């Protein structure tokens, strides 16, 4: 569906105007040739050549776009067009390029500030700077001096600021495209002076205010696009339904996009004005706040309204038309010539009206995605005999697929339908016969609940080109009938439970479909066997086989289709030798992923590949011992992963030079050595870089500051100062891991330049001195890990500014002072707090109880005194038994290259004291909930309020001075896996409820003053006796000391309720034991001699 996107028409207009411009230049050439005979053309004007050279000097040209700008005649430079009559520069076409795939996008662009020297180009008629990077700069006002300009394209240039009002003086301008920037402020009314303008595109900016009515003066305008981000544009409104009358004067308009103009719901004159534009063919009212109320009000105010007969494309998406019946009746009354109708994201529900399929007899494309349409409503569209495309993506269909197709096949649409998209519903059932739609070319059923085997005899439409069953629960193999569909170009069966040998699956696709198939996605299934011959598919461009159970050796003589540009086969168990001969015909290859296999690449040192890769993933494949020299030849590489690849080499300078183009680089887990030279390099992207677990040494180079995430852990880096304290802001660095190096001395106090840092790990180094106060200026911090250094003093109070902190690990250092109360009052997003093994003293501040999201607290091995706060019951996250994770907990937002904020994820990988030992945890596994207050000097009782923390998995209160009894209801902590109360002064009996905790795998109650009989329970008897040792009054299994009843010499004067309960339990179990013994003797049972003797002694002993 067109979806009223201005891009296709924009491209058409651009192409047309570019063609006309080129033709004019050709006319110039012809006239010059006729006038000059064989004398040749006129060279460019010297003043203009100098202006262009100043432009080149001001640009950062990472991709060599201006490399031809040398020599005397600028008219022969790339992108420069001159008049051969005068030698003046008349055109500059310096647009960048973007190529996207699912892994990355490849860009080619200029960046920098446009110099004012261009003002010398007085004769400029054509200027195209589309898709370059002028981020943080404004559109130059001197562009208004290009008085001969006809064509100005500044789309996707990352310009900020306001639209210069001076552009309104370009009286000859016919084409103005400012799309996809970060422009703000109001639309200058002076644009209404551009009387020759035919195309105006202001979409995807942050403009605000009222659209100036002076735009109504643009009587020659053909296409007008607003559709802004930020929901701040509005049309003039007099409060009485008036406003937008100026639209009626745009009598040449064919395309109008009013998307995100939010006050249209309360005005009516604008829609009346639109009805008078007899040339209008496409109208977008996407996300304009229109509702059922608008329809009712419009009927009353404009009873005779009708859309122009010329209107063929209408976008009403992202409004709030809750009643599909009301909406469809309204559309049926006011337009009957629609070809495309987009209603996605409109909250539509209820039943559609019958007249819709009667009046919409021209409709070809209908999009009802993200609505509440019921499957019965499909009947309303079954008799639209022109309908070729129906999209109900992300709907609420739950019926079986056969029933849904039956609704659609009940009318003439069965013959016209060419595209059907029902993906991302909850459609159930198995796959029925699909041949009932003879014209169907695209069938998309991914992300549903389809189950069962694909029938061997299934029939597909004979013209089918695209079939997607991805992300369902299908089983079995691929039917042979798929291979007999001669028009099949794309087959997606990913993310199912398909099984069998891959060889058989490929054979079943080797019918006539082998000649047409271009895209085959079988990833994340259960296919086994080795990689068969794929070269039988001569047209194949993309092959996805990742995350299956492929195994065995890949034949060295295997070949691949010459058209292949994407080959993904990661995460299998394949092995074998890969040589350059297997790539000799793959000149179009752009994406190669063989990661997670055991391939050995034997490539000649001087090999020059026939391809130019954008993505290369060879994790765990053996490339070593040297870095592949052929990587130098890959000029467009954007992602590189050669981690754990057996490389033992000194990294050469050329490698760092090619790395500047990457947006992802992972060379971790190798044996790379040496200094990284601090070259004058600048990454063209903001890359994710991992050099972890190598042997790099020396200072961390400054050019790494431009990374998005940087993992330098487990190396031998020794100097951080130049990296941290270099001039300029590290505007995008969000993650920094320099743990496990040999960094020493004080951490530089220069962290104010890191505006986006969300994750810092400096653990396991030799840092000393105080934690730098400037770390508190990194206000976006989510994770701060300072563990295992030699820091001293107090935690800086500036950290209270880091209110987004989720994890603070300042353990295993020499920090001292009281535990800062501001941790509780300011860091209220905190989920993990570890201050273990420091020199903190004083009591636990009650302010910590404000940390309701806290699920892990470790204050062990300090000098903390006082009592355990009863308000620990406020740790709400520990009161929930389930383990839940909010994805936003592990994400952060930084400004994006395009000006809009962009979200990134991070992993938390850390070392925690768990069950008495240090263990590594990552992400969701960190959600194990625990409290460790061991090895302190805590006093008093264990608060009974702790039993409300029913989600606790680990509780360690050992090695303190706690007294009193173990809370009687401790059995409520049913999730406990680890409980250590040893080496305190606890007394009384072990609560019987403890026996109810069936998940308990580690228990230590030793070295206390506990007494009484051990509660009978499978768990408690299964622990070693050492778990209870040094409790003189305890008896019963698993202890060797058995229990017996003694007559008390004196009754206590008064008993507490708990004392009476203890006596009852002890007497109950004693009588039960005696009863068991008598019964055993009566039945002729056997007791071991030692136990029988001991029991006899007990029975005959004196009271």
Verbal overview:
β57 and β58 (901-905) form a beta hairpin. The radius of gyration is 37 Å and the shape is globular. It has 15 helices and 69 strands. It starts with 5 loop residues before the first helix and ends with a helix. The chain is α/β, with parallel strands linked by helices and 1103 residues long.
- Helix fraction? 10-25%
> What is the mean predicted local confidence, pLDDT?
86
Which residues form runs of ≥5 with pLDDT under 50?
24-40, 884-888, 896-901, 1049-1103
Shape: globular
Terminal CA distance reads: 95 Å
Number of strands: 69
Radius of gyration: 37 Å
**Biggest sheet features:** 36 strands, mixed
Core attributes:
36-stranded mixed beta sheet; LRR_dom_sf; 1103 residues; 69 strands; 7-stranded parallel beta sheet; Leucine-rich repeat-containing N-terminal plant-type domain-containing protein; alpha/beta; single chain
What order do the helices and strands come in, and which of them pair?
Blueprint: H1 6-36, H2 46-58, E1 59-60, E2 80-82, E3 89-93, E4 97-100, E5 105-108, E6 111-112, E7 126-128, E8 151-153, E9 175-177, E10 184-185, E11 199-201, E12 206-207, E13 209-210, E14 223-225, E15 233-234, E16 255-257, H3 269-275, E17 282-284, H4 292-301, E18 313-315, H5 324-334, E19 340-342, H6 356-359, E20 365-367, E21 389-391, H7 401-408, H8 413-416, E22 419-421, E23 442-444, E24 451-453, E25 466-468, E26 473-476, E27 490-492, E28 497-501, H9 502-508, E29 519-521, E30 526-529, E31 542-544, E32 549-553, E33 566-568, E34 573-579, E35 591-593, E36 598-602, E37 615-617, E38 639-641, H10 653-659, E39 664-666, E40 673-675, E41 688-690, E42 695-699, E43 709-711, E44 716-719, H11 721-725, E45 735-737, E46 744-745, E47 759-761, E48 766-769, E49 783-785, E50 790-793, E51 807-809, E52 814-818, H12 822-826, E53 832-834, E54 839-842, E55 856-858, E56 863-864, E57 891-895, E58 901-905, E59 909-914, E60 917-922, E61 930-932, E62 939-940, E63 954-956, E64 961-964, E65 978-980, E66 985-988, E67 1002-1004, E68 1009-1013, ...
Parallel strand pairs: 3-7, 7-8, 8-9, 9-11, 10-12, 11-14, 13-15, 14-16, 16-17, 17-18, 18-19, 19-20, 20-21, 21-22, 22-23, 23-25, 24-26, 25-27, 26-28, 27-29, 28-30, 29-31, 30-32, 31-33, 32-34, 33-35, 34-36, 35-37, 37-38, 38-39, 39-41, 40-42, 41-43, 42-44, 43-45, 45-47, 46-48, 47-49, 48-50, 49-51, ...
Antiparallel strand pairs: 1-6, 2-3, 4-5, 57-58, 59-60
